[in-house]
Amino acid sequence: MSQRVATATPTCDHAQPAAHRAVLHQAVGVLMDWYDISPETAQDLVRTWATHCGASACQVAEGLVHGICLGKPTTCQDTLLRQLEQLLRHLPALNP
User: Fold this and answer.
1) DSSP assignment letter at 7
2) Residue 84 CB: number of other CB atoms within 10 A?
3) Which of 23, 38, 9, 21 lies closest to 75, judged by CA?
4) So what's the pLDDT on residue 13?
5) Are 61 and 23 in contact (CB under 8 A)?
6) How far apart are CA 90 and CA 51, in angstroms?
7) DSSP symbol at 73
8) Distance CA 57, CA 65 (A)
9) Distance (Å, rounded) from C-alpha 34 to C-alpha 89?
10) Which of 8, 66, 84, 93 has the fewest other C-beta atoms within 10 Å?
């Protein structure tokens, strides 16, 4: 994972840098699995979506992993989750 994503200044509730890296790695893995993309492309998506949504990369990752994939309550705002759902719908599925 790029240093920029792993050390992005988050505004989420993770108290430790290791927690930030873990959720970012999980989000990259999800995108790689679902869309058959490279780690670099997945990292770029997380960063791009963070900018688009006005959130940190960590918030985007947490929303994707916990809110969308696992359906668990998160600290993410509902508007961020809805934005992520829309962004995911616009990615072409490579593994039908």
Assistant:
1) T
2) 23
3) 23
4) 56
5) yes
6) 17
7) -
8) 12
9) 12
10) 93
